[in-house]
Amino acid sequence: MTSQFPQGPPPYPVGAPLVRREGREKVTGTARYAAEHTPPGCAYAWPVPATVARGRVAAVDTAEALALPGVLAVLTHENAPRLAAVDDPTLLVLQNDRVPHRGWYVALAVADGLETARAAAAAVHVRYETDGHDVRLHPGHPGRYEPERVNGGYPATRDRGDFARAFTDAPATVDATYSVPPLHNHPMEPHASTAWWSDGRLTVYDTSQGSTKVCEDLAALFTLDEDEVTAVSEHVGGGFGSKGTPRPQVVLAAMAARHTGRPVKLALPRRQMPAVVGHRAATLQRIRIGAGTDGVITAFAHECLTYTSTLTEFVEQGAVPGRIMYTSPHSHTTHRVVPLDVPAPSWMRAPGEAPGMYALESAVDELAVLLDIDPVELRMRNEPDTEPDSGRAFSSRHLVGCLREGAERFGWQPRDPRPGVRREGNLLLGTGVASATYPVYLAASAAEAHAGADGGLTVRINATDIGTGARTVLAQVAAAALGVPEERVRVVIGSSDLPPAMLAGGSAGSGSWGWAVHKACTALRARLRDHVGPLPEDGFTVTADTRQETSERSPYARHAFGATFAEVQVDTVTGEVRVRRMTGVYAAGRILNSRTARSQFIGGMTMGLGMALTEGSGLDPAFGDFAECDLASYHVPACADVPRIEAYWLDEEDRHLNPMGSKGIGEIGIVGTAAAIANAVRHATGVRLRDLPLTPDKLLAHL
Hints:
The protein is an alpha+beta fold. It has 17 helices and 28 strands. Strand 12 and strand 13 form a beta hairpin. The termini are far apart.
């Protein structure tokens, strides 16, 4: 047994830059996504979105659609299968005649072929009775209210000390309002599902960040036991939060499959996605900072106004990051929300932190300019000893280290703080910096580790690989715990039939899954160590979960930190902003795979670049829909948009997290980037724009 299962350290330690296990499958096209599963007899569906902003369906004429050859059915609220109530009302499609927003699905055409289904959907005629609608967010909206909680379970309002008095008494003050428009999740793979029923059992291939949740919700909707539903999300082409919870397409596919008795495939058209898969709601954020002449903050306030839908409450937690970032003995942070006749906002990468830290880090830069203090130095002067909001000690906090190393790698000094002095012909050049933070989330997960009589080792867990390399990282964690080379370990993920696990979201996946895998593999290794003789024919299997560990509240404040530096050029003729280079340095615990980690950091920074310069959408006040609803009008950044982008990290040891000592890294890269770019634009031009994105039309008037 010693030769089969060695007890020494693994030859490939955690942190090694191993190549992703599924890489060859993806580049050769053998990795199969949800829409690429085509069971025998598979039919195709195409949804019909509402064309009014608010009202009810008065009548649906399906005769023309049903007359088309190959059309199997048209589902409406009059004939669709009935669903049981669930917590998420966005899943209760085709259950009544209500139209809560434009784009809400009012019918579903099902046919033998995709083109026929699309033609049938176009032939469905719907008559509406409309009501007045409201899709405009503005500070004086009479419907604004204070929610009890915001996303993440945080209290909507927190007060410490006497902010009003401290702000009035402060020698230096900043009072500014920043706005971020609606932002959309546009993963490369659109939301898609393939569903079929067999002997009362439902199977779905779904593009999801967590098939455990898909299984749970489908079981509840169709009144099934969870063991009567199998949800598979083996390969997922990105999600950015929009696939974190089930979306209408998986429910519609299952309904159509039940109604027709055939497998049904439904892939959402991209132009329909902004209305039904969630988005980041717009925010209006007022920041007030009071400080001494030395730059030390004495008063801080962050007031965040956003919107939610009339279907369900979802409140972006934009003011929460300000509760933990800098020293602030007197603070006031609060959220207000307005219910509007809009598609339901939902999770989008780094919710709360992305828009909230844009406003906060822009305001800190304004304070640095006001006091003529270097922006890096100002942030260091406001480093707290403990988390300001709770008073808890940080499990680890190396923001100052990130700022120092980032400044050195970027070449921050010597920097002339005067704006508009660096020029190359028609181009103005500038540099900017911003801090970043993201909380450590860990959730209960279960894993199974198996040792076969043939020496094979298998780990089974319902983790989801959304393009981050989860399979590879979990193999490394398992190999380290077992003391074997990682190629000895087979990892099986992506099905609700596996031990249940946390979804891939909140930068909590690897930390949560890895903990369960480490626990199961450690127990298996101990069992193998104590075993004498050959293994039984069916080998040894050990299961473990982390319910107890993750239910215990940590006495520490646990966060990842980082610093982003950017250099931009602004064309004085066209108003175009181009990022020349960006450098990010992060402190995120132990890095589990240096290759995939660098990819995650760079991906986040690129997304932050889009938030700063190109991405944004508007709700048409007359029609109630998003004007930018496809990739032709909603501009995501590409490789050509930044010639040089670099990501580094500190070797951070934190024993208060999980057995690996890891923090999440998927989202922190986006958090500081937009502010760093905006601050660089101000340094280049002397113009402080506070409304994202920084498009040429906004800059030209000032140049």
